[in-house]
Amino acid sequence: MKPLVSAVATFVCLSQPVWADTTDFPSAIQTEEIKTNGTTIHVRVGGKGPPVVLIHGFGDTGDMWAPLAAELMRDHTVIVPDLRGMGLSAVATDGFSKKNQAEDIAGVMDALDAPRADVVGHDIGNMVAFAFAEAHPDRTTRLVMMDAPVPGVGPWDEILKTPLLWHFHFGGPDMERLVAGRERIYLDRFWNDFSADKTHFPEADRQHYAELYSKPGRMHAGFLQFAAFEQDAIDNRASVSHGRLQMPVLAIGGDHSFGPTMAFVMRFAADDVRQVVIANSGHWLMEEQTQPTVAAIRAFLGSPVPHTLKQTRLSADQISALSHDQGGAGTSGLKGVQMVVLSGDPKEPGPYAIELRVPAETRIAAHTHRDDRTAIVISGEWHFGYGTEADDKATTVLGPGGFYTEPANVAHFAFTGKRPAVVYVTGEGPTDTEYVNASDAPSGQ
User: What is the pTM (predicted TM-score) of this model?
Assistant: First the structure.
């Protein structure tokens, strides 16, 4: 089979795959039926650690991810849904725009107490993963996009003209009647035509998926995934026009399929795109070249995430309207000291900025923070000093515009006089407060 797009490829082949049934999950994986966004999603969950969501495409179900889940669940919480209406999720007849299905994923994450996750998609799952990252960039730690175009992004209109993608336009009143009872024949056309070597899509997997897709409503849902592409393109163009993705993106293509074009497409929408092309593979990366595909994803998910500072502009009135919390990460924890988070989150990795409002006649004993911090006095009179013993005689009195630093793990202390003070502090989270003398720590800290 010839590649969909002719281009110079970077080849990655770490080892030979095992041609066995790849749909069996480890016994430690549990299943849940999660009601969300007007439907019920069948979800496999297992492991412990940072969450990772694996989203399948057409011709597969979430079962395609079994080998990757077995690898990742050693140090991740693996979340593997069946898409709306597909696999073992509830039968559905609407809601197949990828923007709406992104909210299915958000609801699943909410139900499983996963505020953020690495997100991995293949085929249609690519498109749902992209829509999720666009709608919830703050919830997407890393994004893996595998061997499928994204409606409305990059050369989408040219890709639609590719004869091998005839099924993107397959429709009409007799579409389902033509396929009914012939699901295996129909699916074989994709498994064969989009493989580098059709014998590398295991027979056991073919039988497994053909049985699932032959159940009532399942092929109907599959067809509706494609029917939504026109709306998906409109939604994606609107999303991209509002800003580019900032999280790290891994774009994986098979050398006999989408190849380096996967990365080419993603660079129209994301700033940090890494490229991997899997040798001797067509579209069905997990089935055809299981081990090198798993290895590429594992290496990417193990890489550090760069922390970016978001664009933020706040007027004084807007700052006053923000939540004013007592104590909190990065403060002394003292009663009466209020903290306003201006950007970032001091409890999480990445840059943050906070406003501290300290009452008059407040004594903050010697303490340290794990991160380097800088600060500027906005109002009042701030008595600041370094050392393990809090002594006002060792402080420098800083008024509005005064600047100081709090180097990581260096003890420091502060006082206010007869007037309250407001101080702005910036650092690189996560941060905390550790008192030199434990007896100085406020109750409960």
Answer: 0.71
